[in-house]
Amino acid sequence: MKKRGRRWLAEMLGTFGLVLAGTGAVVANELSGGAVTHVGVALAFGAIVMMMIIAFGPVSGAHLNPAVTLGFWAAREFEAREVPPYLVCQCLGALAASATLRFLYPESTTLGATVPIGAVGPAFAMEVLLTILLMFVVLACVVGHRLTAFAAGLTIGGTVALCALFGGPLTGASMNPARSLGPAVVSGELEWLWIYFAAPIAGALAAVGLYRAVWAGTTVD
Fold this sequence. Notes:
The protein has 221 residues and is mainly α. It has 8 helices and no strands.
């Protein structure tokens, strides 16, 4: 398989793993009457992101997230021609993961779909803020410090877990259009999907501007 094909496959498999384990924890919590707990779900998301970055980062960069891909493109750290296949592969991986969970656990109602609590405005703003935090850390790890996949995985995975801990009860703490797409499409819970497309993308693009403002001229030995 050519190098580009390996990158696309890595993005598909990595996003599949993220959605399978992350939303799988939500499904397990639902069907077990809360055995996993909210903290457990947050840790599951953080751990799977860490694992997928370590496993696939050296191959594709392990974006695993359309908002992150668009953020790297806006930061001029990713070629425009690579954006469409990355987005397609990420979405396919997410859809495949949710379809797998539907096959295994048809009794689950939403398959871990992200649904806001309360008004739309605060939910949208929260998703923007969460994604700004995530994308800023991603850029700091990958562009600023140029960390290894292992170190970046630990840091970014920890960031995802933290965001899920305080943002999860409010919005589901998606920060990732693909993560929300899979469960929404397979479960038919489409009403709020626009929030989880628009807000993470807006947050990722805003993070690029903030990163440039903070890190301008900074070098790391």
